[in-house]
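Extended Data, record ATP-dependent zinc metalloprotease FtsH
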Amino acid sequence: MADKSKIPQPQQPNPRTTIISVLLFFLVAFFVGQQFFNMSNAEAKPTDNLITSEFVQAVEQGRVTDVVYNAGDGTVSGTYYPAVTAGSSAADAYNGAFKALNAKVGTLQDASTKEPAAGIDLETVDVTRLGSEHNFTSTYTGAAIYDLMAAHPDIPFQVTLPSAFGDILLSLLPILLIGVMLFILFSQMQKANNSQMNFGKAKAQKSQEERPDVKFDDVAGVDEAVEEMKEIKDFLANPAKYQSMGAKIPRGCLLVGPPGTGKTLLAKAVAGEAGVPFFSISGSDFVEMFVGVGASRVRDLFKQAKEASPSIIFIDEIDAVGRQRGTGLGGGHDEREQTLNQLLVEMDGFDKNDSVVLIAATNRADVLDPALLRPGRFDRQIVVDTPDVKGREKILKVHSQDKPLGSDVDLAKVAKLTPGFTGADLANLMNESALLTARRGKKIITQQEVSESMERVIAGPERKGRVLDERTKHTIAYHESGHALVGHLLSHADPVHKISIISRGRALGYTLSIPAEDKVLNSLSEMRDDLAVFMGGRVAEEIFCDDITTGASNDLERASKMARAIVTQYGMSPLGTQVFGQPTHEVFLGRDYGNTQDYSEETARRIDEEVARIMKEAHDRAHEILEAHKDQMDLMASVLLERETVEGEACEALLNNEWDEYLKHEDEILARKEAEEKAARERDEQLADPNWRDAAVEPGDQDPNGPYRPAAVSAEAPTSEQAGVETRPDEGDGGEQGR
């Protein structure tokens, strides 16, 4: 489980910014609320501005309902009824109502006097509060207002005294708002200026307090490179040990190797165990849109490293800035060359007592500038190559430590089946196995999941939904049978492990071979047999199919490349040991564009003739083999059309032309395999049971460097017949089937 202390925490907000934001929010809310309050009052009652005499008249006529007097500015506010005059709509309405009432009353008799009842005298009716109530504002200076309101005690009267704080706040509030807005504006401008000024600062990540979790024990398969890096770490930890012998600390160390071999992982291991400040940066981080930024960042990076010495600088993908100088296609005085020049100066300009080591990684050491590679800058070049079979086994153990492997999974066998795999490929293989196991709802990773994941990594995912017609399947079956039979009958070709006509990735079919061991050198005999195997698919189409197809295009491409390399690069042809077509490295051309023809037209003609001869020889050998085994080819094609995939004992019997004998014992073979799988499943179920596992595992039974396995169910070592190595199939192009 990951350390919670190293999980990146969300960035905490700036307290000053938070306070300013809260104040600004409340100020805006206050103004908005005040505006809404005023608007609601204005919509409820209309407001009239009265002169002082109109206010006094309204009070004396009893049309005022309440009065609020502000002693500070002498303003008067409140509510009142406007005066109703004769002829107004309100007066006419009330007069009409009273006249109708009097007419009705005149028809009645007074009970005491027996006379008609008297009507209502309109002149005595109080019409001072007719109509709707209005708000009003007015002014009244002096103390006489107190006497006026004392004479009308029935009117509510309120006096408000002036508030200095409120007045000051209202007067300063607009200024405060403007100040806050200006502060935010200038803060953003300051940040923009700082970011522009920081262009020249190095973007290196300094690892001192929180170091990577990777240790040297986590780097497997490259023991020699690990030993070299341990020595560099020891240089920094105990410099006196080497200085007493007159030795100097190496200035730089260059990690060279194919992608995925663990160069960056090795640098992380140095950072995890160095005990000194570790600065890591990518080569592309030096280059920006502004001229001179790269050189400035190099200076700043080495300045930080010297201040923190002893320290380590790691530059990943240094070929981004360390390419060979020259005008090239893009001009000679570019930003990248300025950065490289500054890097050369800084590396060779270390003071004698500066304990700073530069580690760089690249997979294109051939394009680096020679001045960068000389001793005194990069004193050591450590090759991090693809691991051998023992290295692959160690890498598989590292990547399976946290995965529940079944008892039938043998990592040594898997290592033999994966020649050419890098550490990244092996990590991907184990991860795909875990994903496939989880997808199937299993608790334990078995050999079946590992094998299927291996094919997925090599040939791509299986394309079950691809529908092929019978004619296409017929062609693919004979094509793959031709590859397999030719490879099986030639002594220097890799033995065939599996034949399939199921589409995977871009290939319509594929044939997997098993080299007996990792190949370091290829002999002429091996390459001649490989050429014949390449031609086996096309020859099978010529003999057994109505027409040839584009399915062999990738085979022909690989065969042509190998045949031309035999003639022009390896010196294995009658033309002699001369290498033809050497790169010239023209200064006015890019390095990859500098290959020119350094031989005559007559030599070019002889090269083409020799390549054509080698290709025809391979074609004839394949044709001779398949012509002599037509019946076996028909059998192989029919079996593939029926079963689609043949592997293991079935594949061996089919290639040895012992298919009838295999069919007699097939039920026994399948029953034995089923029994073995059942026993493995039972052991895996026990392995998945935590109660049984705790009881079964004794102290000392666990391999600290391998996956979790109880000793009672550990897998047996594979037999020599079971061990093997798988090769990668050809990648088809469009409608091609691969080998």
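Summary. The CA atoms of residues 295 and 338 lie 6 Å apart.
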